[in-house]
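Hey,
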Amino acid sequence: MIENFNPIGIGTYKLDLDNKEKTLEGLLYSFRKGQNYISTSLMYSNYEIVDFLKEFFARINREEIFVMSHLEKYIENKGDVEKQVDEYLKRMNIEYIDVLQIHTPEVCKLKLLDVYYEMQKMVDKGKVRYLSTSNTTLEQLKELNENFGIYSFEGVYNLDCKIYENIGLLNYCKENNIKFICYQALRRNKIAEANYEFLIKMSEKYQKTQNQILINWLLKAKKLYTLIKTTQKEYIDSNLEALNFNLDAEDIKILDEFQNEKYNSIKIDWNANNGGITIDKLASQ
């Protein structure tokens, strides 16, 4: 079973299902290039993505990839947890999930700890290997980790959106050996499109794209992991090539210290009732 992650995982949000053969070919290419973890959700395209992934898993050695799945709306009864887990197993035709996590605390109509007690039962039954979480507060993460031992945390992190670093959650993950997995690491190319002067200069200096600079910084300097969705071979290669060089210390310092006050000033609705935006929508603002 996979224990060592390639730093770049396979994202599956909005996979192109109009061109299934090409999309499957791209996923298999990512896997064969060493991308050995994949994150998905029943919510993505209303179950169509997990149904499609059945074809992907049928073409590979299941033991060579790490599968991460999200619990979605709504967990109203204790039995809803196992019901969703069984849905994943059946639709993807796999025998177990490596990591199970809530997508956001909003999906839980029960108390968060009660939901995780039910998730722990899935570990005890052998349907799940590890428990993770996503889009929580630092306090919620601490509570879950103290009670269940959290394997990884999936959250928004990029050059513009550093809230999880600013509130101390990134450090907590590092101190407690919790893998921090970034989603929207490139903000769907919007950071490169902003053409920050310092990024342009770094791109010229290293003869790399701005996105390669960003990926290198996140994975090699910050020692984080990320999920990137692409099934185009040239982009897959470009992303992986971002690991093949080193940034100078002064450039890492620039990237580390940059703060985008526009994003820092956005009000986050951590409890889904205070009038701000939920954290999962931050990078798309």
